[in-house]
Amino acid sequence: MPELPEMENYRILLSGRITGRTITGAEIGREKSINVAPERFRMDVIGSSVRVIERRAKHLLFHLTTGNVLVLHLMIGGILYYGRLEDQPDRTIQVRISFGDEHLFFIGLRLGYLHLHTPEETAELMKKLGPDPFDPELTEEAFEQRLRPRKGTLKSNLVDQSVLAGIGNCYSDEICFMAKLLPSRRPATLSTEEYRKLHASMREVLTEATRYGGYMEMPLYPGDPLTGGFDARCRVYDAEGKPCERCGQPIVRQEVSSKKSFCCLNCQH
């Protein structure tokens, strides 16, 4: 599932390509991927343009000049592709939004969605989310105060979108590795110094992953040199059996809070 770095990468790359361009068409291949009738969807978006693209947690918010917002959540298996018709991947397209002879393809939206909302509805939907990891108000002290009282594990809390918004399975493991903490640790057992390291690791990992385009394998557009660049830089996620870059011991896979999790049992504590 795309997480904060993947969606932020999409936001940055798409902002320079579609912002301000008139939407000339909209094709719906799967009506369950949207929340209004296809005729209503097309009527609202065609002729408008994207004023700004915002990321909130794992969502992209396409603010239209009509005042309404397209809210995208890719969920598991969802990807985006931007290009001409002859460039489109050999994949089933659930939604296609056209900008002249270039198109934004929404692919794999079996669980994901592209919903049309008013600003008020969008704000209400986003209220359930916790703070963004880069929120200036999420200081080291606020971070510790938010996590310490919680039950469960570090893994379960880092991926809980009501606790922190934007982190999922991959980056929760990468963050814990960077902080030298086991994902199975209980929040109440961490010292203030460990919380400081976890907070710093969270921002360092997410910043690095965004800078390298996240771990999504498929490029966003023809010739895209950035998207997916972090995949090869993952230190523990999906690296079962490979040597830890710090100590050389094999990375192990465990079930933590009913989720797959990867760590080094030797140098994470």
How many individual domains? 2
Write down the oligomeric state: single chain
Question: Which H/E pattern describes the elements?
Answer: HEHEEEEEEEHHHHHEE
Gyration radius (Cα, Å) is 20 Å
Instruction: Give the CATH architecture of the largest domain.
Output: Orthogonal Bundle
Classify the beta-strand content into a percent band.
15-25%
Number of helices: 7
Give the helix proportion (percent range).
25-40%
Q: What spatial form do the alpha-carbon principal axes imply?
A: globular
Key terms:
269 residues, alpha+beta, N-terminal domain of MutM-like DNA repair proteins, Helicase, Ruva Protein, domain 3, 2 domains, four-stranded antiparallel sheet, 7 helices, 10 strands
Overview of the molecule:
The chain has 269 residues and is an alpha+beta fold. The protein has 2 domains: 4-126, N-terminal domain of MutM-like DNA repair proteins, CATH 3.20.190; 140-263, Orthogonal Bundle (Helicase, Ruva Protein, domain 3), CATH 1.10.8.50. The protein has helices at 4-18, 38-45, 119-126, 140-147, 154-158, 169-178, 192-211, and strands spanning 25-28, 50-56, 59-64, 69-73, 79-83, 93-99, 102-107, 113-117, 252-256, 259-263. The strands form 3 sheets. It has a 4-stranded antiparallel sheet with strand order 1-6-7-5. It has a 4-stranded antiparallel sheet with strand order 2-3-4-8. A two-stranded antiparallel sheet has the order 9-10. α1 runs parallel beside α7 (192-211). The longest helix has 20 residues, at 192-211.
